[in-house]
């Protein structure tokens, strides 16, 4: 849960999500329905964000034993797949391309969110989840990759933590709008967050390659090599943060 919550906080600071906080909160609190009803809708909006990520964990509970998930997660093929995925995620965070869901799907959900009531608020939350996928998808992959070997309930805990971290600020800032004054303005620092996440994704990619290497006994990622690559990655991150 804690790992998922931390992942959700990182996702919250991404350029796909952070600028949406003041816009969404203002939409709910400055509507024509009155402040109290706007706050209620903002609370529902935050809850629905959590609910969406909770629902995504439910399929892992059907017909899948924890031992099976553990065997799959510790097996070499899945670790190689994760290695490739995390390298792709890192390249995406470095700005070479953007991971997006089909625009048709996003547009349909977005247009449907104009419906009033609970369904409209839920569809607004779903729109945020879809639109922000280019930033949240890789982070969610890291959360799932680390929880998978522990069985379905830890996956649910991790996904719930992710959803709570992502949805909570929308509810809090709607209840206490004055807190938004303390929020930093959107700007270039959001892009820096993505690059930092890219370095972290690379470090995770090496971890998964090391897992596969242990199974197949390739000898590619010995203990010393693993630490050397991590030192290089985090030295690169340090140089980036220093503006070099």
Description of the molecule:
There is one protein chain. The radius of gyration is 20 Å and the shape is globular. By secondary structure, it is an all-alpha fold. It has eleven helices and no strands.
Provide a short characterization of the protein structure.
The protein is mainly alpha-helical and 244 residues long. It contains 11 helices and no strands.
Largest sheet: none
Treating each run of at least 4 consecutive H or I residues as one helix, how many helices?
A: 11
Rg, nearest Å:
20 Å
**What share of the residues lie within helices?**
over 70%
Q: In percent terms, what proportion of residues is strand?
A: under 5%
Low-confidence stretches: none
Helix and strand element order? HHHHHHHHHHH
How do the strands and helices of this protein lay out in sequence?
Elements: H1 2-12, H2 20-29, H3 35-57, H4 66-74, H5 76-93, H6 103-112, H7 117-131, H8 133-147, H9 152-175, H10 188-216, H11 223-241
Descriptive tags:
244 residues, single chain, globular, mainly alpha
């Amino acid at each position: 849960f804690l790992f998922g919550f931390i992942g959700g906080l990182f996702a919250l600071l991404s350029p796909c999500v952070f600028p949406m906080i003041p816009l969404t909160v203002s939409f709910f609190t400055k509507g024509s329905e009155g402040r109290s009803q706007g706050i209620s809708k903002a609370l529902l909006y935050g809850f629905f964000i959590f609910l969406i990520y909770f629902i995504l964990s439910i399929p892992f509970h059907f017909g899948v034993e924890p031992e099976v998930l553990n065997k799959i997660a510790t097996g070499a093929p899945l670790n190689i797949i994760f290695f490739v995925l995390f390298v792709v995620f890192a390249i995406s965070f470095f700005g070479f391309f953007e991971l997006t869901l089909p625009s048709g799907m996003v547009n349909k959900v977005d247009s449907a969110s104009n419906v009033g009531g609970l369904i409209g608020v839920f569809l607004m939350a779903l729109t945020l989840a879809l639109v922000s996928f280019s930033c949240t998808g890789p982070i969610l992959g890291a959360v799932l990759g680390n929880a998978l070997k522990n069985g379905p309930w830890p996956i649910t805990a991790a996904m719930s933590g992710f959803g709570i971290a992502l949805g909570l600020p929308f509810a809090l800032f709607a209840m206490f709008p004055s807190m938004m004054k303390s929020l930093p303005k959107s700007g270039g620092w959001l892009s820096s967050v993505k690059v930092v996440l890219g370095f972290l994704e690379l470090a995770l990619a090496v971890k998964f390659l090391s897992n596969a290497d242990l199974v197949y006994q390739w000898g590619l990622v010995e203990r010393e090599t693993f630490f050397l690559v991590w030192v290089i990655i985090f030295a690169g991150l340090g140089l980036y943060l220093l503006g070099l």
